[in-house]
């Protein structure tokens, strides 16, 4: 939706807004205090829709260019924002500024964030999606700050980041260099409690000493702190606002279409979507594994299924961003060495596709002498040819891949069987624990509190 | 630990012995001190390492059994984790406890550790989790690249000097056909695997020869610049895969898991879950950990001697019973841990009250 320039300034500049500005000291905002001003119904709606457009653009960019903050990704976001008439957001993605235009952009950013936060606090899935997008936005904003701006930023928000002097840096030079991904020369480092950068800790992507993580301004843009801030608000909202009341108070304006549009895949209620939306724990054998398993669990499993680390990271980052189905499709592509024209949207679809691929591969692999001919055929094929034939050809050309492929499919079957027997064992265990409180044979370790109570 | 005669433990007698143990020996006072350092719902950060997770690399014993050779796995694990918790995370109040049978527990009690949420615990556990295992029957693997985090380098510097002694000699890991097969499985390249298989299985060789041929093979490829990048660290990867601590990280990640507390009696072995000093873990002897039966004998014996030399009754009562037994050392370690913990709480309290004075 396009706004005439004048109305933007007029609408958002009243006495209340004067004090509002003190809450917005920087183009790269932390959304700490919610707004306490009156906003007209129309503005409320418009701001919500603008924010939604922005987040959708980020989502689309992530689908097209999975590497967040890559040049292509950034370019995509900027282009789309310009096309959508959201030029003020573009301004916020270009470092800090203090002109009237900057202030206006900050106000719209701030208000629209909180409005949409209302709309997206209603369920775990909405929250997840919202936070993932907001994190991307924050990272984009932060990554465009100059190193001087980062310093100001850290002081401004009193983030407890202590700059490390060049001497201190040289003292731990070797350890530091081997513990971060980029070159450390000429880059400012800050000392921060390891608790503030748990995602870096988890992946061993920062140097740790005495409870402090040494992070550079590049590492900052991971934006972990925003997530923590959002986590707080998410809890606050769900505590104080009854769903009923929320609907009555806010149902008038915000028509977000999450689940209906928003990506090239059809996200409307599908079996996968249903599975994803069903509550479950990672111990359950039901539910979408890409949602239930946390990053480390997923990593362990994927590595064990023989996926190479680069691709593992790929799948994990999709899953942690809330793209469970895309992560699943990517996993399918990797394990079947193929490219899917359509994403996985139904568990049955996964197996059907898998079956088709396997059946087509088996007889071909028995005649390796065909491979040269097949390779020629593969070259001749065009992109227009259908899904199945394309896959077939690719596989024929890589006949020696079949052995590995079959192993993987066997592993997959075994995994499913294990999941089933695990579920059974779980039930049996619970029953037996009800009967007896004795430490069992493998009792050196642990009991769940819940089992004992 | 002084030499102790191993006394047969009979689980049948446990119900009779426990009341005496809890009345006369269990360090109640220290325990209350430990529990009273917080009154809210806090939970230590805990780690659980169990020898059964090493069954694919230990040949000396299996399952619940344990000997001084396999204790070395625990010793390495303790050293690697302890230094990471102290140097990297800055934790100071760490209690290591023998789990009573075949493993070790670690309790991190620093305030910051106790207040960690699930995400924080998960991050630390993942940081310390290096090897990948698909569970029973599969080969544990570690992948190393040119860029190695300082914690990985440090772990290597602990593990590599001990590898020959623990794996090659004690465990005789490559002295059998199965052992050689396992070693070959860890090579992520089929051609090299086949090459080496021929070399290593052509005639029966001892563990030491197999390991030096293995290293020699890749070294000669390296010298001729024929070593594929993915095989660059294959030797180090094998060492790490076999000796890097195998944590049960789910125990550390959750706050609703319970570990057996220190000074519990293991119901199957009768052994006390005694704390030990991580700096001397290599000298800890899990075989001669006192059992409840031994302890009860020890107090009786002690009391008997006292009576012989006709001490006054009050005198005798002043000596705490546990001080008369071989559990003494474990309790001293526990007391020292508590003393430091209380000290740090006091100094925190002083800092807070100083701040209040500013107003
Ligand atoms: Zn043994």
TrEMBL record, chain A:
Residues 363-387, 432-453 are annotated as: Disordered. GO terms for biological process: DNA replication initiation; DNA replication, synthesis of primer. It comes from the Eukaryota. The lineage of its organism: Eukaryota, Metazoa, Ecdysozoa, Arthropoda, Hexapoda. CDD domains: PriL_PriS_Eukaryotic. It comes from Clunio marinus. It holds the Pfam family DNA_primase_lrg_N. Residues 366-386 have a biased composition (Polar residues). InterPro entries: DNA_primase_lsu_euk, DNA_primase_lsu_euk/arc. This is DNA primase large subunit. One of its GO terms (cellular component) is alpha DNA polymerase:primase complex. GO terms for molecular function: 4 iron, 4 sulfur cluster binding; DNA binding; metal ion binding.
UniProtKB/TrEMBL annotation, chain B:
Its EC number is 2.7.7.-. InterPro entries: DNA_primase_S, DNA_primase_ssu_euk/arc. Keywords: DNA replication, DNA-directed RNA polymerase, Metal-binding, Nucleotidyltransferase, Primosome, Transcription, Transferase. It is an enzyme of class 2 (transferase). GO terms for cellular component: alpha DNA polymerase:primase complex. GO terms for molecular function: DNA-directed RNA polymerase activity; metal ion binding. GO terms for biological process: DNA replication, synthesis of primer. It comes from the Eukaryota. Belongs to the eukaryotic-type primase small subunit family. NCBIfam families: primase_sml. This is DNA primase. It comes from Clunio marinus.
């Amino acid at each position: 939706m396009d706004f005439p320039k004048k109305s933007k300034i007029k609408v958002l500049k009243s006495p209340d807004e004067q004090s509002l500005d003190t809450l917005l000291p920087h183009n790269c905002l932390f959304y700490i205090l919610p707004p306490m001003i009156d906003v007209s119904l129309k503005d409320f709606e418009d701001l919500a829709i603008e924010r939604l457009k922005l987040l959708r653009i980020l989502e689309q960019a992530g689908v097209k260019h999975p590497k967040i903050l890559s040049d292509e990704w950034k370019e995509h976001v900027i282009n789309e924002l310009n096309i959508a008439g959201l030029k003020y957001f573009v301004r916020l993605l270009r470092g800090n500024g203090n002109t009237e235009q900057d202030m206006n952009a900050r106000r719209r950013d701030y208000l629209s964030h909180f409005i949409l936060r209302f709309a997206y606090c209603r369920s775990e899935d909405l929250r997840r999606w919202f936070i993932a997008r907001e994190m991307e936005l924050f990272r984009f904003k932060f990554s465009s700050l100059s190193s001087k701006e980062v310093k100001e930023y850290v002081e401004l928000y009193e983030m407890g980041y202590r700059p490390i002097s060049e001497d201190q840096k040289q003292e731990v030079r070797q350890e530091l260099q081997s513990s971060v991904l980029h070159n450390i020369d000429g880059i400012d480092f800050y000392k921060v409690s390891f608790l503030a950068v748990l995602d870096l800790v988890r992946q061993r992507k920062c140097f740790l000493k005495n409870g402090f993580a040494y992070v550079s301004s590049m590492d900052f843009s991971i934006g972990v702190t925003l997530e923590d801030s959002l986590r707080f608000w998410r809890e606050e909202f769900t505590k104080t606002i009854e769903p009923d009341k929320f609907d009555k108070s806010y149902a008038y304006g915000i028509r977000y279409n999450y689940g209906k549009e928003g990506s090239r895949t059809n996200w409307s209620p599908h079996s996968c979507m249903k599975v994803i939306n069903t509550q479950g724990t990672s111990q359950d054998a039901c539910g979408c594994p890409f949602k239930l398993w946390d990053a480390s669990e997923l990593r362990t499993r994927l590595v064990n299924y023989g996926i190479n680390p680069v691709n593992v990271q790929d799948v994990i980052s999709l899953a942690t961003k809330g793209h469970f189905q895309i992560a699943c499709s990517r996993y399918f592509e990797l394990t079947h060495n193929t490219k899917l024209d359509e994403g996985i949207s139904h568990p049955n679809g996964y197996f059907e596709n898998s079956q088709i691929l396997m059946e087509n591969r088996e007889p071909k692999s028995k005649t390796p002498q065909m491979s040269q001919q097949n390779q020629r055929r593969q070259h001749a094929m065009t992109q227009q040819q259908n899904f199945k034939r394309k896959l077939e050809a690719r596989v024929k050309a890589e006949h020696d891949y079949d052995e590995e492929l079959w192993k993987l499919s066997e592993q997959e079957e075994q995994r499913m069987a294990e999941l089933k027997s695990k579920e059974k064992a779980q039930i049996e265990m619970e029953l037996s624990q009800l009967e007896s409180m004795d430490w069992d044979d493998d009792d050196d370790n642990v009991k769940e509190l819940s089992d004992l109570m | 630990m002084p030499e102790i005669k191993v006394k047969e433990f009979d689980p049948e007698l446990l119900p009779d012995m426990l009341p005496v143990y809890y009345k006369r020996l269990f360090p109640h006072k220290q325990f209350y001190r430990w529990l009273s350092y917080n009154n809210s719902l806090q939970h230590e950060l805990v780690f659980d390492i169990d020898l059964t997770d090493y069954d694919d690399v230990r040949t000396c014993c299996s399952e619940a059994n344990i000997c001084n050779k396999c204790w070395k796995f625990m010793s390495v694990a303790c050293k690697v984790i302890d230094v990471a918790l102290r140097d990297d995370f800055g934790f100071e109040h760490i209690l290591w406890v023998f789990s009573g049978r075949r493993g070790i527990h670690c309790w991190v009690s620093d305030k910051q550790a106790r207040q960690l949420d699930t995400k924080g615990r998960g991050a630390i556990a993942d940081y310390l989790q290096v090897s990948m295992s698909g569970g029973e029957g599969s080969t544990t693997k570690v992948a190393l690249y040119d860029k190695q985090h300082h914690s990985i380098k440090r772990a290597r510097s602990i593990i590599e000097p001990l590898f020959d002694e623990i794996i090659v000699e004690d465990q005789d890991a490559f002295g059998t056909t199965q052992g050689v097969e396992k070693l070959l499985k860890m090579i992520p390249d089929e051609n090299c695997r086949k090459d080496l298989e021929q070399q290593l299985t052509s005639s029966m060789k001892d563990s030491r020869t197999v390991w030096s041929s293995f290293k020699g093979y890749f070294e000669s490829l390296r010298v001729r610049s024929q070593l594929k990048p993915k095989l660059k660290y294959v030797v180090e990867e094998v060492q790490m895969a076999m000796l890097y601590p195998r944590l049960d990280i789910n125990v550390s990640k959750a706050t609703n898991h319970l570990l057996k507390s220190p000074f519990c009696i293991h119901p199957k072995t009768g052994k006390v879950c005694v704390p030990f000093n991580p700096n001397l873990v290599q000298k800890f002897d899990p075989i001669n950990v006192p059992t409840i039966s031994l302890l009860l004998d020890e107090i009786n014996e002690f009391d008997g001697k006292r009576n012989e030399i006709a001490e006054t009754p009050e005198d005798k009562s002043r000596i705490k019973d546990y001080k008369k037994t071989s559990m003494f050392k474990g309790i001293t370690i526990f007391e020292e841990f508590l003393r430091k913990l209380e000290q740090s709480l006091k100094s925190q309290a002083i800092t807070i009250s100083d701040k209040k004075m500013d107003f």
